[in-house]
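Reading a protein record of the kind used here takes little practice once its layout is understood. Each number in the token line that follows is a code from a learned vocabulary of backbone shapes. One such record is shown here in full, so that the layout can be seen directly:
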Amino acid sequence: MSVSRDHTLKVCDLESGSELRTLQGHSRAVNGVAVSADGRRVVHASGNKTLKVWDLDSGRELRTMEGHSWAVYGVTVSAHRRRVVSASQDTTLKVWDLETGALVATFTCDAEVLCCAIAARRIAAGDQVGRLHFLSLELKEDNN
């Protein structure tokens, strides 16, 4: 995968390096990309304040997730909880449901959030002034 200022995401074959398809749909630069653990979904973050979810096999856009008020810089997908975490210039981290696109939670940081990662129920995020934030994500459904 490669993201670009030309508003696209290129999907390439890992073995040959040849381009398989170009995903288009954002009106601004694509800043970050993440692939689901099963390899079926790709999510990318854009300067147009949104994230897009695509079916990787067909190249079909599944949904657009809206909710940030500024550019989205980073995105990550959890390994088994089907969650997407996005990092934004608006100083927030947002947690989304991968399959429905529903917003699950919002965390506010002190500065623009540039990157994020998620493992199990822990989120790590780096902000513009060099701080690293660690957050715990506990959802009602985790108690069932």
Summary: The chain has a mean pLDDT of 84. The domain at 2-143 is CATH 2.130.10.10 (Methylamine Dehydrogenase; Chain H).
